[in-house]
Amino acid sequence: MCWCLVKSLEAYLCFYSNFRMALRQVLWEKAPEPYAKPPPLHLRVIDICDMVRVLSWDFVKGQAIPKMSKNNTVVAVTDGTTVTKITLFEEYRHKMAVGKTYYVKNYGVRGTSPPYHILILKETMFYRSSPVALTDELVEEGKKLLNPKSVLTPTSEASRGRGFITLEGSVLEFTEIKEVTVGREHVPMRTVKIQQGTDTATVSLWREAATFPLQCGLLIRISHLRHSTIYLQTTNFTKIEMVEEDKVTLTGKVEGVSSCQEDDNLNIDLSDGSELVIAKALWEPLEEQFEKGDLFVTVERVGTRVTAVKAAEKKK
Known about the structure:
Layout: H1 2-28, E1 41-60, E2 63-78, E3 83-88, E4 101-105, E5 108-110, E6 117-119, E7 125-128, H2 136-146, E8 151-152, E9 165-174, E10 178-182, E11 185-196, E12 199-206, E13 219-227, E14 232-233, E15 240-242, E16 248-259, E17 265-270, E18 275-279, H3 280-292, E19 296-302, E20 305-311
Parallel strand pairs: 8-9, 12-14
Antiparallel strand pairs: 1-2, 1-4, 2-3, 4-7, 5-6, 9-11, 9-13, 10-11, 11-12, 13-14, 13-15, 16-17, 16-19, 17-18, 19-20
């Protein structure tokens, strides 16, 4: 009797151990045969996020316009030991929900080297299952997979950053959007140079990030950048946003005026070292006075963009 109980316990422990290791084996071990079916998995959904992916673009007069898009869902899942993420294409978005556990089989595995990725197929079956236990560590790991940390980094240290980094700065210059071939896709790309103090960094903006409306002098924040051979590059996680800044008032002599990348703007340098961007419409009333002699101005600026300007008396 005791011997039977021991054998039953050993069998249970062996089964439970294999069950707990199934996801890790799928992700890290190559299938023994080319057409071997991966084992069924018990997976609990930790978190979900939606992801819009543009499948094709129209390129018209220097602009990139999304032509066809697809709304996919990315889910972070665990078997109680290992965490991974799975993309649910638009037609399968309803198959999984946060907090629910599923018995999943007939899925695919893709990738040329570990960790491999789980691929949801037409044949994939989802069954409701009893809950898989969660720990705080598993939850944190799952959330990081969907929204990894991006460290706010000074522009002066951008070249030494590791992992994902976030940069803030004023737009100094940018290129026009161009059509680039990546594999069989035609995607938009442009570069932008941003300035923080006296330091600058150049970033390659790809796909949706390339369509962000840029203006010289605009203060922006670009998240989840990675190093490439030449420039920092955007990734699937990248978000670009304008940074709100208080208005600053200053007075100084206009040392010089030059053309700007944007036809409607000019660059002006003031005697205190400020390099600002001003709309031609704001500058035109001051042009005649500037041509006659020294011009002192009081300006209001947000970032490096002038929002208001008027002639001022010469400082004594």
